[in-house]
What does this fold into?
Amino acid sequence: MFKKLCFGIVAIAVLVPAVWSQTADEIIAKNVQARGGMDKLKGVQSVKSTATMAMGPGMEAPGVLIQKRSNLARLEFTVQGLTAVQAYDGKNAWQVMPFMGKKDPELMSADEAKEVEEMADIDGPLVDYKSKGNQVEFLGQEKIEGTDAYKLKVSLKNGDVQTVYIDADSFLEIKEETKRTVRGSEQVVESSIGDYKEVNGIMVPFAVESGVKGSAEKQKLTITKVEFNVPADDSIFKMPAVPAPPAKVEVTPKN
It folds into this structure.
């Protein structure tokens, strides 16, 4: 009996390091495979996602997000009959916000631009993270609503820091926290990710619930359709020219 107990202790001691010997690169490789494999992911040149965001009681904002390689994105969403645009052309982020009294396109601030720039990464921050200038650190395991998940710290090139939680069984992402500075104040936005469905051999989440960490207010995004490799001209991502103000007409007083 004593020998069996000793053998059991030794076996556990051998197995435990194996559990924790996962590296960030190994987890990322399994995540890529779970999503459909690198060849499938790299075969996607553009994505069109149609969705509805529930922004509060009785208020929904339908929208369309178009992403295209390399680092192009355009989001349109409608609130109370007014359509807003946020876009990134690979260098500059711009927006049109009519319900904020801004009907003309304008460049976004550096802080605001980060979110749109990250949205333009069609593969996500983990794929080819080194070539993108990102850093990834494995922080061990943690339970997320009863589910064992691998925890990765992703330091983005733009200065934002994301904590990505990957299901230890499916190796699909189930939660994400993003720490960024907004108007001089540090803010953490957490997103729960789920309802994965297969689209042309690629696993895509169809439900995302987001909000500032610690706040009861959440925005629920329900994706209704995802299309790959749809035509998207580069011109739709570029900021339109701002209309020139009307010329002043000088009136010469009559004598």
About this structure: The two ends are 119 Å apart (CA to CA). The chain has one domain: 36-229.
